[in-house]
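Second opinion, please. Please look over this fold, written as tokens:

===
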Amino acid sequence: MAIREQRIEYREGSTVLEGFFCHDDERPGPRPAVLISHAWGGCDAFVEDKARKLAWQGYAAFALDMYGKGRRGETTEQCQTLMMPLVEDRKLLARRIGAGLEALRAQPQVDARRVAAMGFCFGGLCVLDLARSGADVRGVVSFHGLLKPSGLPASPVRAKVLILHGYDDPMAPPEDVLAVAREFTAAGADWQLHAYGNTLHAFTNPQANDRANGMAYDLTADRRSWGALRQFLEEVLS
């Protein structure tokens, strides 16, 4: 096994973006692929590590960039400044994640017919919006994602949907969970939701340690959610 890593520059309109792509260079033929959407801080080491893990499991993986080449947030204020224009303009958000999807599909190592998407926190919102748009992807997975609807005209949902959620996440309270369940049911989607009890926001991130603001790493939920992801990808990308 030889994992090859590269940074790929692409565009959405006039905005230059840069994602992280990796795959096993020794596996023959185009591979099923996974698009990874980052949390509010930008395309960072966390999502790059997830891409590597997926490459080891045989997928081509691309950690996209929603903000622009080199744009990252360190403080809460910086992250909010980067994220909120996209949260408030869901058409722009759709164009950005669509550009990442097309950049992934353009890679010769990728089987463009077998693509799924996953995202963390803000990235969870992004991949749910990808499903809401009717995008031709096999499935989407949201890890502790924001669940607010896009407010855009509804499209038929073609992707299977998996939502992995901390039940005590203050950023997506139970009323949001009920609302997103009703939304995807009304859309006729094949959806499922795993809610982890006594679990807060950002449960997959070992650096999350702010219980006062509802964010904490949870080893058990992290392991369970990754296992659920692997099973889901085997189902939708086989």
